[in-house]
Design brief:
The complex is a heterodimer. Chain A is an all-beta fold. Chain A has strands at about 5, 10-15, 20-25, 30-35, 45-50, 55, 65-70, 75-80, 85-95, 105, 110. In chain A, the strands form 2 sheets. In chain A, strands 2, 4, 5, 6, 9, 10 and 11 form a 7-stranded mixed β-sheet that branches. In chain A, strands 1-3-8-7 form a 4-stranded antiparallel β-sheet, with no helix packed on it. By secondary structure, chain B is mostly beta strands. Classes of the chains: A mainly beta, B mainly beta.
Chain lengths: ~110, ~110
């Protein structure tokens, strides 16, 4: 039973389109995150939600809008996709304190053509 | 701002040799420290973490890391490399009092030669 699951695993789309990535965790965690991994494998946090409330927004373009319908779900919607948005997006969850580990999903490889 | 430096973007060892992957953090207040492993086309898996208990931390798959405050380091070691250890390794920090968001190093790709 997957702890953090994201769909889809692969997403190929054209510039200008709007797309969503879904994430669900069954660990009972209060905090969920979106991370972006670029082509050089560098990982950077984009958003953090605690119990459905936005905690961190790391200077991400407002074309990216996270939505948390409940604390087990954190979806990422991206408007007007650009070539530079191509990356692997990881959802993660944790108990929300600095000393607890984050559990990561398998990632969504987004390719914008 | 907190930062993490991983020396060596690529480390190559022979099977059975010692693995040493280096990580240094920048904060004057020791953060919480983590090592994650990423196998190709997969998510990240926790190897081990340091949260102010013992400075020598043992993790999964025979890996361990030692926290050295004087050197602001948290290097990852394994006495004997196995072919299955070939992967990307990330050191990460989480600040005390934070919501657990991780700041990652740039990663080190470990190759293991037969």
């Amino acid at each position: 039973d997957t702890a953090v699951s994201q769909t889809p695993k692969y997403l190929v789309t054209q510039m200008g389109n709007d797309k969503s990535i879904k994430c669900e965790q069954n660990l009972g965690h209060d905090t969920m995150y979106w991370y972006k991994q670029d082509s050089k494998k560098f990982l950077k946090i984009m958003f953090s939600y605690n119990n459905k409330e936005l905690i961190i927004n790391e200077t991400v373009p407002n074309r990216f809008s996270p939505k948390s319908p409940d604390k087990a779900h954190l979806n990422l919607h991206i408007n007007s996709l650009e070539l530079g948005d191509s990356a692997v997006y990881f959802c993660a969850s944790s108990q929300g304190s600095g000393d607890t580990e984050a559990f990561f999903g398998q990632g969504t490889r987004l390719t914008v053509v | 701002a907190q930062s993490v430096t991983q020396l060596g973007s690529h480390v190559s060892v022979s099977e059975g040799a010692l693995v040493l992957l280096r990580c240094n953090y920048s904060s004057s207040v020791p953060p919480y420290l983590f090592w994650y492993v990423q196998y190709p086309n997969q998510g990240l898996q926790l190897l081990l973490k340091y949260t102010s208990a013992a400075t020598l931390v043992k993790g999964i798959n025979g890996f361990e890391a030692e926290f050295k405050k004087s050197e602001t380091s948290f290097h990852l070691t394994k006495p004997s490399a196995h072919m299955s250890d070939a992967a990307e390794y990330f050191c990460a920090v989480s600040e005390r009092g934070s919501q657990g968001n991780l700041i990652f190093g740039k990663g080190t790709k470990l190759s293991v030669k037969p």
